[in-house]
Amino acid sequence: MDEVDFYLEDLKSKFRKLKNVGGYDKYYLSYSGGKDSHFLYWFIKEYSYPEFKDIKIVGINTYMEHHEIRDRIMKNSDIVLFPTMKPMEIKEKYGIPCFSKEQDFYIYYYQNALRKGKQPSRTIQEKIDGTYKKGFSGISKKAREYVKSGNAHKITHLCCHYLKKEPARKFEKESGLKPILGIRGGESNLRKRQYRTCFTKDKKFTPIHDLSDDLLDKIIKKYNIEVPKVYEHIERTGCMGCPYGSYKHDTEKELELINDNQRKFVSEYFKESYEVLGIEVKE
Ligand code: SF4
């Protein structure tokens, strides 16, 4: 047995653990149409035991996906959820993503306190000042200078919350189901810290938290699992033009892959963040 099949056998035994936490029918696959959740889709539908096939596939149409990804969501999901807020409404009310999810979290609460004429909490202030001592010190020098200049636009981590997390949370409340998440710890330091075992405290199932890029690629190659063409150009994709891909220049590459209307929309939505990050939108 090679490392690919060894991993897949191990994954089967991880899935079997669902029996001890209520059964397979108490879980659904949170399907984004991307590489990781599609690997789990393939594992559930084609590779694994027949009893896993009853696990519901639930996608979210965030209005921000590449068309190819959105088509996969529509084709493979049993249920498609929609966010209650549209991106521009989120921008208006809370702001837009800019530096990284974790940095934007601190910046949002910092700006929010100042807007209300309040003093930010001590932790938030230390994160912004870069004086926080325990663990991740805070935000980058560039972010700090920009935010403290007093001219920063409204920045938030809440875009993901309203476009992705909130519809899922609502669905879970109504259905009583818990998610199977295709989250891998290698994707960011935040995720590495958050996902260390197969189950989170609230029993969300994260069976591939320890799967490396290299092994995932080997599995995909060996079993010829379909990968959207967009991955030929970028390593990861969440939403079209999301600035969170900018540190690897994925945002610029994504902007070249989308059509004029989509480019116009994302340039408008992420305008101020693109300006700060120096992301150029070519016509
Ligand atoms: S990945 Fe980016 S654009 Fe998509 S929901 Fe999250 S913050 Fe918003």
Order of helices and strands: HEHEHEHHHHHEHHHHH
Radius of gyration, taken over Cα atoms and rounded to an integer in Å: 20 Å
Beta content? 5-15%
**Low-confidence parts lasting 5 or more residues at pLDDT below 50?**
none
* Largest β-sheet summary: 4 strands, parallel
Q: How many alpha or pi helices?
A: 13
CATH classification class of the largest domain: Alpha Beta
Overall tally of structural domains: 2
Strand order of the largest sheet: 3-2-1-4
For the secondary structure, the number of strands is: 4
Set out the fold topology:
Blueprint: H1 3-16, E1 27-31, H2 35-47, E2 56-60, H3 67-76, E3 79-81, H4 87-93, H5 101-115, H6 122-129, H7 141-148, H8 158-175, E4 178-180, H9 189-194, H10 213-223, H11 250-257, H12 260-269, H13 271-277
Parallel strand pairs: 1-2, 1-4, 2-3
Helix pairs in contact: 5-6
The structure holds iron/sulfur cluster.
Walk me through what this model shows.
The protein is mainly alpha-helical. It folds into two domains: 159 residues, HUPs (Rossmann fold, 3-Layer(aba) Sandwich); 50 residues, no CATH class. The chain contains 13 helices and four strands. The relative contact order is 0.15. The site of iron/sulfur cluster (SF4) has 11 residues, from helix 8.
Features:
four-stranded parallel beta sheet; 4 strands; mainly alpha; binds iron/sulfur cluster
Summarize the structure in short:
The chain is mainly α. The chain folds into 2 domains: 3-86 and 159-233, HUPs (Rossmann fold, 3-Layer(aba) Sandwich); 99-148, no CATH class. The chain has helices spanning 3-16, 35-47, 67-76, 87-93, 101-115, 122-129, 141-148, 158-175, 189-194, 213-223, 250-257, 260-269, 271-277; strands spanning 27-31, 56-60, 79-81, 178-180.
